[in-house]
Write a structure and sequence with these properties.
- The protein has a single domain, classed as 3-Layer(aba) Sandwich (Rossmann fold).
- About 30% of the residues lie in helices and about 25% in strands.
- It is α/β, with parallel strands linked by helices.
């Protein structure tokens, strides 16, 4: 049987910032590609293209993965950018929002990781805290951890009855590298995990099995802990093909 093809949206590395000769390289995180491959999937890197219809891309793959990256632009959820937020990349935002809507229309599964959870929420009508340390007084946990990125630093509690609970149980310690977070949850999503300060750490689609997204980086965590998460995603793709 052919392996399911999963498209991983690319980020862009500014390899040379000289004013005249600016080279740009599209890439996706190697640990994420490795995790998908170990789960029996065939990952391809999908560079943004604002000139084509997203549905043309969606016809070429079986599922979509939205990885981490820069903050989604606040204009996509109706806000002005605060001084304290980091870089944004509107071309990627536009591309991913179009892909999300096309995948849902065509019934193809989506996995969101960190920024991927955030852009899913935005695409479906939710909003974000642009900068939790200054905007959300309840967020007392260090969500932009100072420990190395692969180290699990804070606990998340997983909702019973969710698909995530079936995979990971009642909860676990996760890594955490984000300043933004979900403020208003999109109507078509439901919360499936939260940190002990109430910050939403995982969501899935309310009325079907198409969306799973987490705020942490499972591709950087111990395989023994997170391999079942990626295998469950692969199984879901195969079941829904």
């Amino acid at each position: 049987m052919n392996k399911p093809i999963v498209a991983v949206t690319a980020d862009t590395l500014l390899a040379d910032m000289k004013p005249i000769n600016q080279r740009m390289a599209d890439y996706a995180p190697r640990p994420l590609l490795d995790s998908l491959g170990k789960a029996g999937l065939l990952p391809i890197i999908l560079a943004y293209d604002t000139y084509a219809d997203p549905e043309e891309f969606v016809e070429t793959f079986d599922a979509l993965v939205l990885p981490g990256g820069p903050n989604p632009s606040p204009r996509f959820y109706g806000e002005e950018p605060l001084w304290c937020i980091g870089p944004t990349y509107e071309k990627r935002d536009i591309f991913e929002i179009g892909l999300i809507r096309a995948c849902l229309k065509m019934g193809k599964p989506i996995l969101g990781i960190c920024r991927g959870l955030q852009i899913l929420n935005v695409a479906l009508g939710g909003t974000l805290w642009q900068d939790m340390p200054t905007q959300n007084p309840k967020a007392f946990i260090q969500h932009m951890q100072k420990a190395p990125g692969q180290v699990a630093t804070h606990y998340v509690e997983i909702e019973k009855g969710s698909r995530l609970h079936d995979i990971l149980g009642d909860g676990l310690y996760v890594n955490s590298r984000h300043r933004e977070g979900i403020k208003k949850l999109a109507p078509s999503l439901k919360e499936t995990a939260h940190a002990r300060d109430g910050v939403i750490e995982a969501v899935e689609s309310r009325d079907n099995e198409l969306i799973t997204a987490v705020q942490w980086h499972p591709e950087n965590m111990d395989d023994a802990v997170m391999a079942p998460f990626f295998r469950a995603f692969a199984d879901r793709i195969i079941r829904m093909k």
